[in-house]
Amino acid sequence: MRASVLRNGRMHFRDDVPEPVPGPGQVLVAVRACGICGSDLHFASHGADVLSLTEQMTGGAGDGGMGIDLKEGMGVDLDRDIFMGHEFCTEILEAGPDTDTYRPGTLVTSIPVLLSPNGVEPLVYSNATIGGYAERMLLSAPMLLPIPNGLPPTHAALTDPMAVGLHAVNRSGIERGETALVLGCGSIGIAIIAALRARGIETIACADFSPKRRELASAMGAHQTIDPAQGSPFDTVAPAVVFEAVGVPGIIDDVMRRAAPGSRIVVAGVCLQPDTVHPFFGIAKEISLHFSLAYDAGEFAESLRAIAEGEIDVAPMITGEVGLDGLGTAFEDLADPEQHCKIIVTP
User: Fold this and answer.
1) Are residues 102 and 217 in the same domain?
2) Residue 219, number of CB atoms within 10 A of its CB
3) Based on the domain organization, do 266 and 182 belong to the same domain?
4) pLDDT in tens, 269-282
5) d(CA 217, CA 337)
6) Does residue 36 share a domain with residue 8?
7) How far is 190 from 181, CA to CA, in rounded Å?
């Protein structure tokens, strides 16, 4: 079977991957579309850091409500090929033994986990469990969601990132009448903007150095776009809620210093380096600081519904499409914000 795997920090095409065989409660599916996630790019470049930081956590890594202990599922050997791909839309081929599910040919998606005799296996990074960067993979029958309204697989595959944005918005508790500021217009920031617009927030501002990303943010629902090179967004916007979707050291502290008293900050950007903040800023202003990871099953289903019913149009996000043999180049291209937002893999 054909697949693309991470090896020594780069994606490599293989045509000799063993065919997955569904067990009880599982289904074999053909991957029709899989989005390339920014977390995959991070892992390709900083896999050792991700694994080290995950190992340092106590009490489990948390799960964003998905019922997955990410720490439990992170036994990854960087010296072996790694399967990835968790933003997928698939077609059912066959069910495992004693498994009731939708009929073959049904398009489905799922939160990226696989139930097996070994427990819960996150379909994120694995040496053994195949993800969406392959022709076929296994999914758990109880977790399948059928794709409604004839939604194209390339659009349905973006349910996962849209759910990440929705979860961040839900964490904020934002209400109509409040102003939102989104810092960073990569895929996470764009998903947050889309969720805010679907929520009916009347004033959505965003900031990014990239003209292409600011243009996309407008298409996805931002009312005001700001170039940080021309000055701080806080010079022109007085947000009640700030969404940090950049993920570089210094951003959180700068936001706390500039934000108004009583502001709420939701951190959705993934920063792998140590950072420093001045608690005084947060204490003096009574700022609420929240961190956001992934989503829960209800948010995943709600995001699929919103896309299928046209409440969120993900089409502007899709800026490229490649086959399994093009993943290496796609990972390199995504490093340039002026080229792409979301590249879809169509095996």
Assistant:
1) no
2) 14
3) yes
4) 998 899 999 999 99
5) 13
6) yes
7) 12
